[in-house]
Design brief:
By secondary structure, the protein is an alpha/beta fold. It contains 2 helices and 8 strands. The strands form 2 sheets. A 4-stranded mixed beta sheet has the order 1-4-3-2, covered by helices on one side. A 4-stranded mixed beta sheet has the order 5-8-7-6, covered by helices on one side.
């Protein structure tokens, strides 16, 4: 059993997942409304909306889609996506890339549970926690 995040975007899911693939690598799948079977009735202003995106890395999947209402608030404000980097240099690189154009919430720092841990919000409004395994892990 696994739990994989499914994120909702305010009409910029495709851009976000393209950026995440640049940062993390992996295999990216994106399906837009215009790609779906029976798409003849899709309004022109919704044709490019992503109905499903999946970035697969090491058997784990980060998924998302565009919220057709364009909503940007709600429970997502309480959720973070956690990325466990294999080492400090990778954590620093990933943190910097995710924070670019967004906001550094907690700069990477040494903690009692991790040699490097921090939080940021990316330019798409997604909140991230980045960490490196500590000695007890």
């Amino acid at each position: 059993m696994s739990f994989d995040p499914y994120l909702m975007y305010a009409r910029n899911c495709g851009e976000a997942f393209t950026r995440y693939q640049q940062i993390f690598g992996g295999e990216l799948f994106v399906m837009r409304m215009s790609d779906a079977p029976g798409n003849e009735q899709v309004p022109a202003d919704q044709a490019d909306l992503v109905i499903h995106a999946a970035l697969t890395i090491d058997g784990r999947v980060l998924m998302g889609s565009d919220d057709p209402t364009g909503g940007t608030t709600g429970m997502a404000e309480r959720v973070h996506v956690y990325h466990q980097a294999p080492d400090i240099p990778t954590a620093e690189k990933v943190y910097a890339a995710l924070a670019e154009g967004g906001e550094e919430v907690q700069p990477l720092m040494e903690t009692f549970f991790s040699p490097k841990w921090g939080m940021c919000t990316d330019k798409f409004g997604i909140r991230w926690m980045i960490g490196v395994p500590g000695p007890q892990q």
